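Recap from last week: sequence in, structure out.
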Amino acid sequence: MGFTLQAGAFAKAENAARFSESLQAQGLEAAYYASGDGLYRVRFGDFSTREKARARGEALKAAGVIEAFWVVAPDGSAPGAGGQIRAHPSDERGLRASLVATARGYLGVPYLFGGTTERGFDCSGLTGAVYRLNGLQLPRSSQAQFEAGGPVDLDELQAGDLLFFATGGGGRVSHVGVYVGQGAFIHAPRSGQGIRQDELSDRYYRKAFVGARTYL
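Predicted structure tokens:
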């Protein structure tokens, strides 16, 4: 099997099955399977190159068939024959690990204002895609994401929580990143730069930090 597209990951098998069926109704050979972290992942396609997979994903997103996607390399885990699933308990730890893994998968993707796909992301486009690919919906803007989450103290941060910053001054949220543990976060910084990992202890981000939010 070549490159595939992952369009979602869910804590419950019935949600993954429902999503797979909706994609199948659109003519896609989608299947879901249980990964080792307890999440049920929905994937489809068999593409010879990453570029062809990405182009197909972009076309499906533009047509409204999927909301987000992640190109999976041939050496990534994949469904077995017939898309059979294995029983794994779903748990918050597995979901948080998957959020971090999804964010890491986008490292190096360019910043694009208004971007929500692998062609490029802005900060809230990235966090929204990371969560959508794991079966969770977030509002579009960083301010709305901040308002939608539950407050988290710094000493209680967990991987997968979101960090918010007022990079424009004035205290209003204007930037967001995914906390990945050990004081680090992944984000789409600004035009001309790719998605990268930075430290919350960095003077610039420490000064601009507004708060953290959880959605789990």
